């Protein structure tokens, strides 16, 4: 019922996603897997920004990091934590590759303003 | 007649939904299944946490994640680590910068403290901001385009709609102090 009502209110579109969710999709659609959703809210409860954006070297711009699955299994980017020790391992494809196919890369969120992700 | 009635009924229904339902929804965290970003057909979707399950337990706010992240951190609701392995003591800088090129609207107070609780100096210096008060040519237009403060605010930190959180120092304050008005 809820989902029916929501789908009636389509104009609000992807603005319904949680603030600061990032879609990574430089390679995913091309390779035939769902694009990746990275939830900031979930991770910032556990890690300060500096861990990813300083120690691990994630550039603070959606789409600016060329992340490949090979890098991740080699322990870089998401793989620094998703290694089966700090967090669950890369075998759980669908937990990361969880976006609707065809979703464009960029930052999302219901209260989105003109942040950089808009272009 | 029938056609017109249904159209009218549909319009009323739509209006009722928009006027009464949306504000309710907007003040809530939507389950991932209906957020129109997650694929509802993903067999593993049920394993992911819904934002509301975690965020509703943190100090509330009215914008962004609807969490007051600063209070959540300071009051110990969350204890995000400062490094991948371990949790080293980080450098907290407790100094404010007053920015006064704001025309007639209240000036901007930039507080280093809440920023250095989350970020390294290198996340901002010298790429985004010079280490000298007044040396960086910040404008609101650039911020709205996602530069300077707008790299984070409007993307991950509280959004740019919250003018008065940055523009927090009214001009009258100092004017009255200088004029010696009690």
The total domain count of chain B is 2
Return the CATH topology of the largest domain in chain B.
Cytochrome C3
The overall pLDDT average of chain A reads 85
Largest sheet of chain A: 3 strands, antiparallel
In what range is the share of β-strand residues of chain A?
5-15%
Which range does the strand content of chain B fall in?
A: under 5%
What features would you describe in this structure?
The complex is a heterodimer of chains A (119) and B (182). Chain A has helices at 2-8, 28-31, 40-44, 49-55, 69-73, 93-96; strands spanning 21-24, 36-39, 106-107. Chain A is an alpha+beta fold. Chain A has one domain: Cytochrome C3 (Alpha-Beta Complex). Chain A has a three-stranded antiparallel sheet. Chain A is globular and about 30 Å long. The termini of chain A are far apart. The model of chain A is unreliable at 1-14 and 111-119 (pLDDT under 50). Chain B has 182 residues and is mainly α. Chain B has helices at residues 2-26, 51-55, 69-74, 112-116, 121-124, 140-144, 163-166, 171-178, and strands at residues 96-99, 108-111. Chain B is globular. Chain B folds into two domains: 1-57, no CATH class; 63-182, Cytochrome C3, CATH 3.90.10.10. Chain B is built from eight helices and two strands. The model of chain B is unreliable at 15-24 (pLDDT under 50). Chain B has a two-stranded antiparallel sheet with strand order 1-2. At the A-B interface, helix 1, helix 3 and helix 4 of A face helix 1 and helix 2 of B.
